[in-house]
Amino acid sequence: MGFYNKYILPKMIDWACRQKPTMRQREKIIPLASGHILEIGVGTGLNLPFYVKEKVLRLTAIEPAQDVWNERVVDTEKLDFDFEFILAPAEKIPVQENSFDTVVITYTLCTIPNLSQAFAEIQRVIKPDGQLLFCEHGKAPDKFVQKYQSFINPVWRPLGGGCNLNRDIPALIKNNGFEITNLESMYLPGWKPVSFNYWGRAVLAE
Ligand SMILES: C[S@@+](CC[C@H](N)C(=O)[O-])C[C@H]1O[C@@H](n2cnc3c(N)ncnc32)[C@H](O)[C@@H]1O
Question: Which of these, 18, 46, 48, 125, could form a disulfide with 74 (CB 3.0-4.6 Å)?
Fold first, then answer.
């Protein structure tokens, strides 16, 4: 999969993630970010135009795939807020504990291989009163779609760079140390197995 992962997958990820309904989702969640912000799995930077510059003290973006970041759609030199990029996975975030007011994650929980390690890292780097903003596709509510998601997942995952169709996003967040304070969900227009979205806000559980 070397050629595919290096030359085709990054373009496919960017194409899939820039569809209109997905871009509308970004508009709903990214402007809520404030303070010192960490974005996990920044991909090709599609969220970057949606941050509100007056609310951003500093944005740190991490991404483990250099080939994906090389396809970025934004000139980060021209961002009107303080920005740094770090090549790193969610499972090993190279920053000090209690660093961030907001952690942002969009369309990435489907792909992270070791979710419990990733959430342990998010718990470590987020401030005690920080917020986790998320927008993800995942397990659909309809039994038929769920079955279809699980049936095609073994074929989909390697082609989609490790993306899983059937992760239960709210359950994952709740089972990994967070309490969800706002949650919305719906099918976006498009192919049902990949279009059921969950988005909202979570805080560290007491
Ligand atoms: C579908 S893309 C979404 C990109 C971006 N978050 C967006 O909303 O457009 C999934 C991203 O997760 C990244 N990823 C994969 N494994 C990861 C990990 N262990 N930690 C953080 N990001 C990861 C991929 O490289 C890819 O950029």
Answer: 48
